[in-house]
Amino acid sequence: MNSCTLKIISLFIIAVSAAPNVFLEDEASPILNITTCGGYFEASSATINFQVGGSIRADMRCVWVIQPSNVYNQFTLTSSGLGGNDGIYVATYLYGNISSQRKIVGHAPTMGFSLSFSSSGESGRQVLTGYAGLTTASGNYSYPENGERYGNNEDALFLIAPTVPAQPTLRFTYVDIEFGSGCLYDQLAVFTWFDNEYKQTARFCGDTIPTSVTLVGGAGLVTFSSDRYNAYSGFKSVVGQNYTISAPLVIITFSAGHSPTKGFSLSFSSSGLPVQKFLTGYADLTTKSGNYSYPVKGNSYANNENAMFFVAPAVPGCPTLRFTFVDVEPHSYCGFDYVRIFTWLGNQYKQAATFCGDRIPPNITFIEGAGLVMFHSSDRLVKSGFKFEWV
Ligand SMILES: *[C@@H]1O[C@H](CO)[C@@H](O)[C@H](O)[C@H]1NC(C)=O
Ligand SMILES: *[C@@H]1O[C@H](CO)[C@@H](O)[C@H](O)[C@H]1NC(C)=O
Ligand SMILES: *[C@@H]1O[C@H](CO)[C@@H](O)[C@H](O)[C@H]1NC(C)=O
Ligand SMILES: *[C@@H]1O[C@H](CO)[C@@H](O)[C@H](O)[C@H]1NC(C)=O
Ligand SMILES: *[C@@H]1O[C@H](CO)[C@@H](O)[C@H](O)[C@H]1NC(C)=O
Ligand SMILES: *[C@@H]1O[C@H](CO)[C@@H](O)[C@H](O)[C@H]1NC(C)=O
C-alpha cells in the first residue's frame, strides 16, 4: 500500500500520453520506432525510444507486448538514463504462463550489492573483536568492492560489530544477485547476534531490497553465497550488451523507481524460424477506471484464442478489478478455456486467479498499480465470454 501512496504523491511530475491500442501490421519498415508508453506491436526489429534525453516521472510504468516475427530475439539497451531502482523487465508468454521475467538494468555495470549501516540507541554488547569486519559506528560497504561481478561459488562473510557499543541498523541500499525460487542459487542472509547466538533474520536474492534490521545485540553477520553457475547468465544486461530470448510473444515492462528518471532506447531484432501470430485479442486499459467486455462485439469467442488485456492506469493508483459476467466453457480444473489474472508485484507478474464456467471470481486489487487479464480457449466449446470493470 505504501507504493500506492508514493505513486499518488508523485503524480505531478510529468504527464504521460496514454498508450494507443493498435495492431501495427506494417512489416515493410525494417526498424519500427516505438515511442509510446506501451502498446502491442508486430515487428521483426524495433527500437523502443522512450523519453530519450528527457525525463520520466517517478513510478511510471509502461508495458509493451511484442509479437516478433521469428523465434530468437536479441535485445540491446542502446542508451539509458535509468537509475538503479528503475528496471526494464522482459518476460516470455506461452499458453497462459508468463515466465522468464528478466531484468535489464540501465545503470553502470556494477553487480553485487551495497549496504549501509548506522548506529544509534542503547549500548549493546561488544562481540567479535579481533575479526576483520566492519567495526566503525557507521559506514557503507559494497560487495564486490571493485564494482565488478561477483564470482561463482562464493561464500563470503561480513561482520558488523562496531567497537563502540551500539545497536547498528543494517540497511541494504542495492541488491543485484541471481534470483532463484527460494533463493536456492545465490543468496544473502543476515544473522543478528541475540541471546548469545547468531539467528538468521533475513534471507534474500534477486534485486529486492529487504527491510532494515536493527542489530539489537550489537553485532550481526551478513553471509553471501553464490552457486557454481554464472551468476548473471541471461539475467542482467547493461548498455551495449546483447541479450537473447526465444519466445512466441515477449512482454516488456518498464517500471520506474520512486524518483524521476531519464529515458532509454531498447532495440530488438528477430532471427531464426518464423513464429505464428499468437494473440487473438489485446487491449491496453490505461484509463483510471472503466468497463471491458470480451469479445468486444458481444458474439461468442472463437476456438483457440489467446487474448491479453493490461490494466495499467496511466494515472498512478491501485485499481480493483471486478468481474461482472463470466461465461467460459466450464471444467472442473479449467483445463480447456480459462481466464487468468496476474498482478504486477515485486517486479514480476504473479498469477492471482484462474477461473472458468460462470462463477464470478473475487475482486482483485492491483496494489502496485498494474495487472493482466489473459484468456485462452481450446478447440472445443465456445461461449459468450466475460466482462469486467476496474475502479
Ligand atoms: C523515432 O520517433 C521520434 C518521434 O517521432 C523521433 O524524434 C526520433 O528521431 C525517431 N527515431 C528514429 C531512430 O527514427
Ligand atoms: C504453466 O505453468 C504451470 C506451472 O508452472 C505448468 O504446470 C504448466 O504445464 C505450464 N503450462 C504450459 C502450457 O506451459
Ligand atoms: C553511505 O553513502 C552515501 C552516499 O555516498 C551517504 O549519503 C551516506 O551518508 C553513507 N552512509 C553512511 C552510514 O555512512
Ligand atoms: C551485439 O550484437 C551486435 C550485432 O547484432 C554486435 O555488433 C555487437 O558487438 C554485440 N554486442 C556485444 C556486447 O556482444
Ligand atoms: C461499467 O458499466 C456499468 C453499467 O453500464 C456502470 O454502472 C459502471 O459505472 C461502469 N463502471 C465503470 C468503472 O465505468
Ligand atoms: C467487489 O467490488 C465491488 C465494488 O467495486 C463491490 O460492490 C463488491 O461487493 C465487491 N465484491 C466482493 C466479493 O468483495
How are the elements arranged and paired?
Blueprint lengths: L1 H8 L13 E2 L7 E3 L4 E5 L1 E12 L4 E8 L1 E11 L6 E8 L2 E8 L7 E9 L18 E5 L11 E6 L6 E10 L10 E8 L2 E8 L8 E2 L5 E6 L16 E5 L3 E6 L5 E14 L6 E5 L4 E5 L11 E6 L8 E8 L10 E8 L2 E8 L8 E2 L5 E6 L8 E6 L1
Parallel strand pairs: 1-3, 2-4, 3-5, 20-22
Antiparallel strand pairs: 4-19, 5-18, 6-17, 6-19, 7-8, 7-18, 9-10, 9-12, 11-16, 12-15, 13-14, 13-16, 21-28, 22-27, 23-26, 23-28, 24-25, 24-27
Number of domains: 3
Report the end-to-end length measured between terminal Cα atoms: 16 Å
CATH-defined superfamily of the largest domain? Spermadhesin, CUB domain
**Discrete helix count:** 1
Report the strand count: 28
Strand content is: over 45%
Which shape, going by the Cα principal axes? globular
The residue-averaged pLDDT reads 75
What would CATH call the architecture of the largest domain? Sandwich
Along the chain, the helix and strand elements come as: HEEEEEEEEEEEEEEEEEEEEEEEEEEEE
State the share of residues found in helices, binned by percent.
Answer: under 10%
- Highest-level CATH class of the largest domain: Mainly Beta
Taking the sheet with the most strands, its summary is:
6 strands, mixed
Unique bound compounds = 2-acetamido-2-deoxy-beta-D-glucopyranose
Structural class: mainly beta
> Regions with pLDDT < 50 over 5+ consecutive residues?
1-29, 107-132, 230-237
Radius of gyration: 23 Å
* CATH fold label of the largest domain: Jelly Rolls
* Sheet with the most strands: spatial strand order: 1-3-5-18-7-8
